[in-house]
Specification:
There is one protein chain. This protein has 685 residues and is mainly α. Among the domains are: 68 residues, no CATH class; 84 residues, no CATH class; 293 residues, Fumarate Reductase Cytochrome B subunit (Up-down Bundle), CATH 1.20.950. The chain is built from 32 helices and five strands. The strands form two sheets. A three-stranded antiparallel beta sheet has the order 4-3-5. A two-stranded antiparallel sheet has the order 1-2. Strand 1 and strand 2 form a beta hairpin. Helix 8 crosses helix 9 and helix 26 packs antiparallel against helix 28. It starts with 14 loop residues before the first helix and ends with a helix.
Length: 685
């Protein structure tokens, strides 16, 4: 312990003498100060309504509330301690300005801040922030203007105006956004004094522009500033690749405010997490592009935040390269990372190519050629059948009779004037096909074209992605259901009933030599080089429609199962199989929907011979005259065998026709609307 030195006086000077001298020396100012007390001042300034005219015609209040002054931090002082030059009452009307800097060292910091600039001095002063000079309270006092729960109002008094009071300073939008960000809500709505306020980040007196190297929110210091509260995040950031790059002096390395927009910081959960992908894309454009083509990327683009985003796999702050053993995407850690969302994930599953670039042949040859192959298939099918439909339309219009196609003379409308083309079972199955196919298209196309505006609108109309996903699976189950039912039905007819004609012959759906000759003859007819081919029960385009379902079930159904149950299939398939499944499923589904809504609708409903709609899909029958024009060989075979009458029925009831129109036109309208959206997405995006 340091001992105080003893005071030794000369022998000829006594201590009593010195004390007496000091008393008289101090008595003069003390007695002088006691002449004017604070109460003396309050005798006048304690009155309500005491004012004077200020600059530019303003009115300044001179009233001082005695109780508030006494409770304030200045209550221990006398009025004349601050207001110098008062020697008597009444005093001079013009007194020297009170300088807070005489007592408070913070004035120097203010002078060097944005509030101390020449432009700010006429607007900002100590009382602008701390309030009435005679009622200034400690920042820990709830009455203080700078109490944590009040400071946002104090700063907002200037920074929430439509135009900043100081030209070139903070935008008023900054404060408006702060009110609704996580820190602002913590202060304003929850009353959390631990939540960040304006001074938590910008400081109290030494506030500097964000581009000033000495500013608390500059690139050089913002991590430290945020780390004052977010200790763990700051530590992880410093250990991560971004923090290491920043420490190495990189000007491109992100800092806290690069990802967390200042005054707009939100909780990273649910749909708010979707902003992460856009934020990361600002620096990692190529990675973001490849991610956007994955299932995760497409789903998040639709506004659904419950799937993996960038930080799910790479972590938000401890972001490390693949080569780092601590990295969440290191081969030794990848299974555990995937298992966070996919319980049961294995090594194969973890081999899923999150950033596969299908355009990169050398790195991803299988995915590249799969994409090229599916694109070639799409182009070839639509080119061929699109040309086929246009040529048919042209030729059909040329040969169109004066009477509307399919119309019947009154004499032909007998009780047996209609041909039974489809059985009730076939119509019921076709009805399931229509509903399930439209359902799959409506719920699946938004994922295919997730980058379009209409995709998000359609998903919202369906009740959100989770609802749409559930519906998609329900319609998929229905699709597998009718497919299996049809196979069982065909097997029963062939094996049990012995109907071998279903496997070959004119009643069979199996393509035969005549179908190829009919195709060739049809193109001759298109150009006036030959007569229109005479078709049997099934024309070649009808057989194509039929087998497209089998093709689709194998391709679309199989790839869909891989995506629906990835952890199961990756027990024996590599993770890249999931990538491959998405390519095949997506493009094949596009082929199916585009073909049905464009080519199939034309062949069955929109041809001049059929327009506006063929009701056979619902009623099961069609006018005999019309059917004989379309499939003359079947009618001739049945007539020659004496079996034509077995297939003749009466006209369908008017009510059945009415229901068919409502049902059919609704389905066609939905299909054509989706076709327009598909074409728009392909052309515009």
């Amino acid at each position: 312990m340091k001992m105080r030195s003893k005071l030794r006086l000369p022998d000829n000077i006594h201590l009593d003498t010195i004390l007496l001298a000091l008393f008289f020396l101090g008595a003069v100012p003390i007695l002088s100060a006691q002449e004017l007390t604070s109460q003396d001042c309050l005798d006048c300034h304690g009155e309500e309504g005491l004012t004077r005219e200020g600059p530019a015609g303003t009115v300044q209040s001179l009233t001082v509330e005695g109780p508030s002054f006494e409770e304030s931090v200045h209550g221990v002082f006398s009025c004349v301690d601050c207001h110098a030059g008062i020697e008597e009452i009444p005093h001079e009307s013009e007194l020297p300005s009170v300088s807070c800097g005489d007592c408070h060292d913070a004035q120097e910091a203010v002078d060097g801040s944005v509030h101390g600039s020449a432009a700010a001095r006429d607007v900002v002063s100590c009382v602008s922030c701390h309030g009435n000079a005679h009622a200034i309270f400690s920042p820990a006092d709830r009455r203080s203007n700078v109490y944590p729960l009040n400071v946002y109002r104090t700063c907002g008094s200037c920074h929430f105006e439509e135009e900043p009071p100081i030209a070139g300073e903070a935008s008023p939008l900054s404060f408006e956004r702060y009110i609704d960000d996580i820190h602002g809500r913590g202060v304003i709505k929850a009353g959390l004094i631990v939540s960040a306020t304006c001074v938590s980040c910008h400081g109290s007196h030494e506030i500097l522009r964000h581009d000033d190297p000495d500013s608390r929110v500059s690139r050089q210091h913002v991590v430290t500033t945020c780390g004052t509260c977010h200790v763990g995040n700051a530590r992880d950031f410093a250990d991560g690749a971004h923090g290491q790059a920043l420490a190495a002096g990189s000007e491109e390395a992100p800092v806290c405010v690069t990802c967390h927009q200042p005054h707009q910081i939100q909780m990273v959960e649910g749909e708010q997490s979707l902003a992460i992908n856009r934020t990361c894309a600002e620096c990692h454009d190529s990675r973001a592009k490849s991610f956007s083509q994955t299932y995760h990327g497409k789903v998040t683009a639709l506004g659904y935040g419950e799937v993996a985003t960038c930080n799910t796999c790479h972590l938000a702050h401890l972001t490390l390269p693949l080569s780092d053993p601590r990295s969440s995407i290191h081969p030794d850690n990848r299974v555990a990372t995937c298992a966070g969302c996919h319980p049961g994930a294995n090594e194969n599953f973890a081999g899923y190519l999150v950033h596969a670039d299908m355009d990169h042949l050398e790195a991803y040859p299988v995915l590249h050629w799969a994409s090229v192959g599916m694109t070639a298939l799409l182009i070839s099918v639509f080119t061929f059948f699109g040309l086929h439909s246009l040529l048919w339309l042209r030729r059909s219009l040329q040969e169109r009779n004066s009477a509307p196609p399919g119309s019947l003379s009154e004499s032909s409308k007998s009780d047996k004037s209609y041909f039974q083309r489809l059985t009730y079972f076939q119509r019921a199955m076709h009805g399931v096909v229509i509903v399930s196919f439209l359902g799959l298209a409506i719920t699946g196309l938004p994922l295919k074209f997730s980058e379009t505006h209409w995709a998000g609108w359609l998903i919202a109309l369906l009740g959100g992605f989770r609802t749409a996903s559930t519906l998609h699976r329900v319609f998929a189950v229905a699709t597998f259901g009718y497919f299996i039912t049809h196979l069982v039905h065909i097997t029963h007819r062939v094996v049990v009933k012995g109907e071998g004609n279903l496997l070959w012959g004119p009643d069979s759906m199996v393509p035969q030599p005549k179908d190829f000759s009919d195709l060739y003859g049809t193109f001759l007819w298109f150009f006036g080089k030959g007569p229109k081919p005479r078709f049997d029960r099934w024309a070649y385009w009808e057989k194509f429609d039929y087998w497209a379902v089998f093709w689709g079930m194998g391709i679309i159904g199989g790839s869909g199962l891989v995506m629906a149950f990835p952890t199961f299939f990756t027990q024996f398939l590599p993770g890249a199989a999931i990538n491959l499944a998405l390519i095949i499923h997506s493009d094949e589904a596009l082929l199916a929907t585009g073909f049905i809504f464009a080519i199939h609708f034309f062949n069955t409903h929109l041809k001049p011979e059929k327009y506006p709609m063929d009701m056979t899909f619902y009623t099961g029958s069609t006018a005999l005259e019309e059917y004989e024009r379309e499939h003359p060989l079947e009618v001739e075979r049945l007539r020659a065998a004496g079996r034509l009458d077995e297939r003749l029925v009466g006209p369908p009831p008017d009510e059945a026709i009415s229901r068919a129109r409502r049902y059919g036109f609704t389905a066609v309208a939905i299909g054509l609307m989706l076709l327009v959206l598909i074409i728009g997405a392909i052309v515009l995006y």
